[in-house]
Design goal:
Helix 1 packs across helix 2 and helix 1 runs parallel beside helix 3. The protein contains 26 helices and 26 strands. The chain has an eight-stranded parallel barrel, surrounded by four helices. With about 725 residues, the chain is α/β, with parallel strands linked by helices. Helix content is about 40%, strand content about 20%. Strand 5 and strand 6 form a beta hairpin.
Amino acid sequence: MLYELANKLGISEGYYLQDGTFVKTSEKALKKIIDAMGFDTTHDVMINRYISDIDCINDRPLATSVVIESDHNDFILDLITKGLTLGELEIIISMENGTHKTITKQITQDIIDDGHMEISLMNYDLGYHQISLVNNLFTQNSHLILCPSQAYMTDWAKDKEKKWGVALQLYSLKSKNNLGFGNFSDLQNISKMLGSVGATTIGLNPIHAQLTELNSQNSSPYSPTSRIFLNPMYIDVTKVPCYNTSKKVDVIVNSVKFKERLAIAKNSNFINYKLVQELTFEIFEAVFSTFKHVGKRNHTYQSFLDFCNNTEDLEKFALYSALAKHLNNTDWSKWSAGYQDINSKKVSDFKNKNEKLIELFKFIQWQAFTQLGEVATELKKNGIKNPLYLDLAIGTQEYSYCTWADRHLNMHDVTIGSVPDELNPKGQNWNLAPLNPYILQQTGYKYFIKVIQSNMQYASQLRIDHIIGLNRMFIVPKGVENSDGAYVDYPKDDLLSILCLESIRNNCTIVAESLGNNEKGFNEYLNSKNIFTCKVFMFERWNNSTLFKRPETYTPLTVASTTNHDLPTVAGFYMGSDISHLRRLGIGKESDLMEKEEQRHQDRKLILDALNDQNIKISMDQEQNKEHKPLSHSQNMENLTLATQRFIAKSSSLLNMVNLNDIMLTYDPINIPSTTTEYQNWSIKIDIEDKQLKDMLVNIEEIMKKEKRNSLDIKKVA
């Protein structure tokens, strides 16, 4: 019975390893996952009742949320007729724009016996509607979401015109004017340089909310507090209203203590998250005090009030932020019991007594969204035609805002992870809270829609990290080994349809990070919906071989790059610095590391072979090159990096992204997967005022221009 219930809830009984071995999930783990979805597995009687209830729900005329796709706004509504009775059926559709449409059908015995009935919804508008069925004594209300079958496609993609951009970690930008942490003004400044060399987009790490000066040790942008709100640290505090007129701000920033701490933050080799967050918040408190005092005399005050009134979840997020600040902990599981429930009297009392602190966090979010919007506009002026390529994380921290504010929406006491593989033989636990797919569907995907809308409003492209998570997630229960998890199905088709709807509404291209162990045909399915997929040079090898694929094998609707944030840079890969870090940190057996080094020795040869195959000549120290040893000379690494960029530029991919860390020839990786405090993840700084940046960009511009001309010549011949 337990496995039958699991099957009906879309929970797998086990999974396959890369070598084909089937691993069965333990009954203990399965029970915990089912319990996390809100079903009590204590007694067989309850399990039987759930199975029966699910069968009854599946036999209703409509699902709780009905998502329909169409290319021409001619939608087909499929009704299950088993539960209907003879007589009139009234179908009332309440449209998103406030209008209503009614369809009346006669239910005959033949229709009931057939089991299904199709209703044509001709010329209905795309969007989020409500539908009600009335059949004698039977009534059902459902969400009705009408979507396009494909995502937004830009003109340059339709015309098969290649573009290129630069992917960077925004926090890493080092400049004279920030607080030791890259901000939106730094993004504007670097965009001028990028626009001047023909880059058409700038890709960023996730810029989701990660609460101010708290939990500084968890710096991963892929482990946010909320995916709806923004990280305040990206705000340029000098551009916040009243910064230049606030006496309180003036006293703070000119104090000896502040200057000393600021110097430490700016001059450190790695980002000092805790210190930068503290400095930022001190300024926010001072400038907001002045802003409130000036009040209506400030011409932007009404804009602030409008933002507070029009952002549905802002009140709850500001309340959570204020509580976390007050209790000095973002992990609500460590709060006293009275604060853990958003609806408790204790939380209500706190809210009444701390209105100013709550309003401060609203002010901070207002400025974050305001500055992001200004950046998107300014980037276009700087020649970046498709400015912001934003990144959506797959989930949020386990005990963060989302799991506190919407407790029923998430699965508890389980986390998102991944199955064992060569790099992680024990499996992984990402400590991210998975959404409850059952509740997600029951609530009309409201939360998912808000997340997409928030992230698309200023984006020209939105990258969906680990998009396979919209199809299935590997869920790991607390108290078991990471390998003793199970895949849980998500309503992939519904979620992708909603993505397409929001893509059309926001003129935003969707990019799917679909690397890794996907179902066969999944990337092709995404491409059929005008969704770009990702190609990473280091991963693009022939099956059962280590040989690199030729660039012409890359399909057009892809974003191609040499590496990504979870891989070493081109220079770091060739030098083997990632393996050196693993050895230094004591990660992995020495025998495994030696095997990696042996494979890397072979990879160096394969990279050069792939380049030679494309007639990409590369000047390197010949004596060392013959034996494919690491070549430490910076000119060698520059030549190699530019050569691999030329390889990618030759590909059929319509969008090429060049990583800023590759441009700057850094050896250290941005992030080493499966590490937390062992390595300085997400902390490497990049000096955007370094002359090398401009010189390398000029070289890359020439590569992109030349390969674009070659591509056009090939088209003419064809």
